[in-house]
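Input structure tokens:
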């Protein structure tokens, strides 16, 4: 922690990076850090390669400052919840601090602060701010709460414990707008997302004696619905509540001819281990990766289902 603070104090222009297709934890942690850096009188920029961000998260402080062009004048970069170098979306030439909670993500920064015991990157930052007597204002508390809410699956995750609720209680006392977060992160949905959800469940198949829910989303389905990449996540999470389902697998075609794979588990199956085989990252219950081989969606499907079968 002290080394991170020292590097922040020496830097003149700090760039925060949220990962490609960011969720509330990645954006929330960057938002909270943005306020912290302003409190310390630092020049700060916020970068995310994704051009079309999920607008339901636009309530987060400083959301409007996010740029898709990386500034040349940066002398320090802080990546937040990025999981892998590929998810940075940019080649970083200056010093990189990596702050994350993914167990598979421990060595791609020049300085790595990875804490897998924490439920989210926002939870790590909350602990970091408290340990360094930072003034946690309403903006920071709201951003942190939003990230914990999202990565805990609205507090339904098996990783939730008493410390999670203790932190939430403190954040609310510090002014976190929890009602706004609950409404936007959990309940807010676009018409495009609903259209995509309908298509996804219509085409979903159950594999391995209904223990695996499989979603294959092709480019034409994304275009037909008007949805964005993040809209694929909710149906994936919801499928875990189907009877017998232990693992949910999403394979989504991307415009760059790569295939994005997202994995979820509510059992002993370690999907993080599967993702690591393809250079991805995550946790036991949530993980993902992108393919870099020239494989069709069907070829990737066969490969991943075979790996899941061995773990069931």
């Amino acid at each position: 922690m002290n080394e991170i603070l020292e590097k922040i104090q020496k830097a003149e222009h700090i760039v925060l990076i949220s990962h490609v297709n960011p969720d509330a934890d990645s954006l929330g942690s960057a938002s909270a850090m943005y306020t912290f850096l302003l409190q310390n009188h630092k020049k700060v920029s916020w970068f995310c390669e994704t051009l079309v961000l999920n607008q339901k998260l636009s309530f987060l402080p400083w959301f409007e400052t996010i740029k898709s062009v990386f500034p040349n004048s940066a002398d320090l970069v802080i990546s937040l919840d990025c999981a892998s170098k590929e998810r940075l979306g940019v080649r970083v030439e200056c010093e990189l601090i990596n702050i994350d909670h993914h167990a598979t993500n421990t060595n791609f920064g020049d300085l790595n602060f990875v804490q897998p015991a924490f439920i989210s990157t926002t939870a790590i930052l909350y602990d970091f701010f408290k340990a360094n007597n930072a003034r946690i204002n309403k903006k920071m508390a709201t951003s942190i709460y939003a990230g914990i809410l999202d990565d805990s699956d609205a507090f339904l995750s098996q990783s939730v414990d008493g410390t999670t609720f203790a932190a939430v209680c403190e954040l609310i006392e510090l002014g976190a707008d929890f009602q706004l977060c609950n409404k936007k992160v959990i309940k807010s949905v676009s018409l495009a997302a609903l259209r995509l959800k309908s298509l996804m469940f219509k085409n979903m198949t159950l594999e391995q004696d209904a223990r695996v829910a499989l979603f294959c989303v092709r480019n034409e389905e994304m275009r037909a619905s008007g949805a964005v990449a993040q809209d694929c996540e909710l149906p994936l999470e919801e499928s875990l509540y189907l009877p017998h389902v232990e693992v949910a697998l999403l394979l989504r075609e991307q415009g760059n001819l790569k295939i994005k794979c997202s994995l979820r588990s509510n059992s002993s199956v370690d999907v993080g281990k599967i993702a690591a085989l393809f250079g991805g990252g995550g946790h036991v219950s949530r993980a993902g990766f992108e393919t870099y081989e020239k494989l069709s969606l069907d070829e990737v499907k066969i490969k991943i289902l075979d790996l899941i079968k061995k773990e069931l």
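The two ends are 39 Å apart (CA to CA). DSSP finds eleven helices and eleven strands in the chain.
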